[in-house]
Design a protein that fits this description.
- The chain has 139 residues and is an alpha+beta fold.
- The chain has one domain: Hotdog Thioesterase (Thiol Ester Dehydrase, Chain A), CATH 3.10.129.10.
- Helices cover 18% and strands 40% of the residues.
- A hairpin with a 6-residue loop joins strand 4 and strand 5.
- The longest helix has 18 residues.
- The chain is elongated, with a radius of gyration of 16 Å.
- The two termini are 28 Å apart.
- The relative contact order is 0.24.
């Protein structure tokens, strides 16, 4: 099953992630679990840049699901050009999406993926409304 990324999404960050030798598996390509690490890397970088650092005594974001469409194999050596997007703002959540290609193969998408981010009141262990400052960045 393939998950499609929406056309109506907002680009929030681009970054380059090096493909490390240790990212590969015995088959000589980047292990499937590492794609999720690359997604996490750019998502966490965006969260930090916007000042969205989790506060266990307060509120913050949790990821409640994640998916990846594996299109082509990444191999060492090289660099991943990751693009992070946001869309589908709801009352307590929004969607994050990532596209990945190699820097030496511009325009060739190797993987796409996403995750649902939910705003949570950590002490209450319940979802809470996304704060207006964050809504403004997602819209």
């Amino acid at each position: 099953m393939r998950f499609d990324l929406p056309e109506d999404k907002k680009l929030t960050l681009e970054m380059t992630i090096p493909i490390r030798w240790g990212d590969m598996d015995a088959m000589g390509h980047v292990n499937n679990t590492i794609y999720f690490r690359y997604f996490e890397t750019i998502r966490i970088e965006w969260f930090h840049r916007i000042g969205c650092v989790p506060n266990p005594a307060g509120e913050g974001i949790v990821i409640v699901n994640a998916f990846c469409n594996f299109i082509k194999q990444f191999e060492f050596p090289g660099e991943v050009l990751a693009r992070h997007y946001v869309a589908k703002l709801g009352r307590t959540s929004f969607e994050t999406y990532v596209t990945m290609e190699r820097t030496d193969a511009p325009g060739v998408v190797y993987a796409t993926g996403g995750a649902t981010a939910v705003w949570v009141d950590f002490p209450k262990q319940k979802s809470a409304p996304v704060p207006e400052w964050l809504c403004a960045l997602v819209r």
